[in-house]
Amino acid sequence: STKYCARVNCYKRKNAAKEQVKLSKELNNLQDGCDQCLQKDAGLALEKLKEQHEWELESLRETLKGTWTSEREELLKAHQEAIERLVEEITAKIKTETSVELNASFDDKIKCITEKHTNKTEELQKLHSQEKKTLTDNFKETEASLQGKVDVLTAELQVFNELKQRVKESVLTRDLQRNIKDHGSPGSFWEQELNSLLFVIEMKNERIQNFSKKLLQMEALAEKNLSLEDRVKNLLQQNEDLRLRMEKHQTLIQELSREHARLQESLEKESLLSQRLNQEKEELLYRLVNGDSPPTFHVSPFTPELSPR
User: Which residues form a coiled coil (predicted)?
Assistant: First the structure.
């Protein structure tokens, strides 16, 4: 991993620094020896020691330069990867925040639609109840009124039939027929009686016609009543359909609420992961800037074990 490589490179730099200190000590010792050799043997040994020292220093510089270049490239590569991960995390966070905003907007719309649906259903139920009550009251009033008229007309018809039967069977009619048979024509008295009876009969016939018209009106009202009953049944069916739709709507709202809770939980997990990755990025940047200085950020509890070469 990138952390492991960074620790290995750090360990290499420390070993190289130790070797440089060791060589510096050896150089100092050699210089002390050279001072003693100068007293014994002047130039040749000193030149050889200087050449050897310069060669060793040059080798050490090349070694340190190669090591630092390799570590620098690895750190730059790790930094670039961290930046790419950070860009991906920011993009994912933006998508998540957008999703949260959309979920909030969706919840508001669902709430608004639910309120409108509930209000509309209550309004329809109220109108349905009022219309049903009005139709029922009108039907009862019309039925009572028509039943009263039917009773009155039935009584009048019965009286008329009885009167008609009495007229047919009355002694007056028999006397009239006998008078007509004996004298050839009735007298004025009989004519008046006959005219009176004819007037009564015509009046009753007129009332019978009115009664027939009223019966037709009653039949029309009965058909209208059947139509109103069908309409009431349709309204009841519509009310039941609305109730079923409301139950389905409530079930859908509950499912959406559970889905929203799952999305919220997933968002919290993603947020925690993003915070941890940001801490690791800050630690990496801190190490890149400050070199071997100990980091002050929280690091992962997993620490790879380094073994010196």
Answer: 201-283
